[in-house]
Amino acid sequence: MQIWLDTLDLPTIRHACRLGLLAGVTTNPSILAAASQAPEAVLDSLLDIQPGLLAVQVTASESEAQLRQARRLAARSERIVVKVPAVGEGFQSMAALEREGIPTLATAIFESRQIALAGLLGVRYAAPYLNRIEQAGMDAAALLQESQQILQRYGQRTVIMGAAVKSAEQFLQCARAGIGAATLPADTYRQLFASTPDVDAALQRFHSAWLGNPLTAASPLFMRE
């Protein structure tokens, strides 16, 4: 499963790059609007800091305007994936862009039918909002499993990208469902590496045992310098 980051936090992006985990970075209008730089500068920075893809969302709701924005974004870099809301004229826009060879990501997904339609249109990625789906009282895990089964049954190329992942458990829901990608905010990404009291206690026992034997404590093979 690919890991994408849904953040402008550069240290977090660098960390994922160093580990070789990062497939790309996603943005949305809220993220770009919260930045202290113009959108063009932010996007250039995100392209420079990591070698993967960069997902950028159109802000128009009418198809013709979406297409104009998408083409300008695609012309900026071949690594940009254009995010389009999976509603109304957005489906028409994604179909046209995919025919032009511009990769798209269907966003603002709350139902399996949106993913099924994205699959029929050959959309590259489809991003259900997991945390918001759960907040709406729906079963996000069931949606992932159902949608993945539909895409596999018909051999469609669309990759489900779990989005709005707010916990390690939701990340594991993505893994259990066998979907192709998940995009994580910086806080959720850091949760994946966090310790627990049980882990801390086990490591402390190892440390105490090691220091309790003069032969191991003085071993040159395990010197810290």
From TrEMBL:
InterPro entries from the UniProt entry: Aldolase_TIM, TAL/FSA, Transaldolase_AS
Gene3D superfamilies in the cross-refs: Aldolase class I
SUPFAM superfamilies cross-referenced by the UniProt entry: Aldolase (SSF51569)
Key words, A-Z: Schiff base
GO biological process, one term: carbohydrate metabolic process
Classification via PANTHER family: FRUCTOSE-6-PHOSPHATE ALDOLASE 1-RELATED, TRANSALDOLASE
Protein name: Fructose-6-phosphate aldolase
Annotated source species: Chromobacterium alticapitis
